[in-house]
Design goal:
Layout: H1 3-25, H2 30-42, H3 48-76, H4 82-106, H5 109-129, H6 142-159, H7 164-173, H8 178-203, E1 214-215, E2 218-219, H9 220-241, H10 247-270
Antiparallel strand pairs: 1-2
Helix pairs in contact: 1-2, 1-9, 2-3, 3-5, 3-8, 3-9, 4-6, 4-8, 5-10, 6-8, 7-8
Length: 271
């Protein structure tokens, strides 16, 4: 089979899975995209260190599109807590720009892969534990939410995920109902992706093209294909999130995340 057709098939399948899960679980898709894009890019002759960075940057750029599609579906259900979005967004923009335009270009891909492994493992553990927060705990004031946003934006920029691995556990820890936390996390995905993608463009501006169709750290064929397909699938996942108990699916997804974290750790050690 022609390599280009193989690539298109891989990206269509990957975009379908990540878009659906982004809407269903509010995970932004990055936790699936980064490992599989690393595999796809590295198999095309790109050094492992650069492949990890390209996968992270491309994954984050797709969230610009999937977050819009997902949040529209959640908003129709009245599930997005917009005051939380407004409070956390300024910090997210600051943290994302610091990560994308600053730290991302300096830190080696090996360490980014290790950080991705740790964050994904943390997210999977949170899904499995399902601990109940203290009933009196509430969201902090706007200063605390802005500080949390800065942390979410910065960490997301380093691992190429939409921030749900921090924001959803944080909001549920503050007694925001899970469906509202997932929906609000989807809305936060857009400022996270915007700030970090701008940062990646700035930091990768002078990089030579690693693959046909790449622009700095962004792999445009993957960005275009995954973005379009995931935008179509994200509303389906969001609708499913409001009509089913996702507890069992979260446990299955957590086990998958452990496997993907192990793969990224292997990539880091093998460099």
């Amino acid at each position: 089979m022609d390599v280009s057709l193989t690539l298109v098939a891989e990206l269509l399948l990957l975009g379908s899975a990540t878009g659906f899960l982004a809407g269903l679980l509010g995970v932004g898709g990055g936790m699936l995209l980064v490992p599989f894009l690393t595999l796809i890019i590295s198999h095309r002759g790109v050094p492992a260190d650069l492949a990890v960075k390209m996968a992270i940057a491309t994954s984050m750029a797709t969230i610009l599109f999937t977050s819009l599609s997902s949040v529209r579906a959640h908003h129709r259900h009245g599930a997005v807590r917009w005051p939380i979005v407004r409070a956390m967004a300024p910090g997210i923009l600051v943290g994302g720009l610091l990560a994308g335009a600053g730290m991302f270009a300096v830190v080696k891909g090996q360490w980014l892969a290790i950080m991705f492994c740790l964050f994904v493992s943390f997210s999977a553990t949170q899904m499995l534990r399902g601990r109940k927060p203290k009933p009196q705990r509430q969201m902090p004031g706007w200063q605390g939410q802005a500080a949390a946003g800065t942390t979410v934006g910065f960490a997301s920029g380093l691992v190429g995920a939409g921030g749900a691995f921090i924001s959803v556990p944080f909001m549920t820890w503050c007694n925001v109902p899970i469906h509202n936390a997932v929906a609000t996390s989807a809305a936060l995905g857009f400022p996270i992706a915007l700030a970090n993608t701008l940062g990646y463009v700035v930091s990768g501006w002078s990089l030579p093209s690693a693959l046909p169709g790449s622009f700095g750290y962004l792999y445009l064929p993957a960005l275009g294909t995954v973005a379009v397909v995931s935008m179509l699938m994200a509303p389906l996942g969001a609708r499913a999130a409001h009509s089913m108990d996702v507890g069992r699916l979260k446990r299955i997804f957590a086990c998958l995340l452990y496997g993907l974290a192990a793969y990224m750790l292997w990539k880091a050690v093998a460099q």
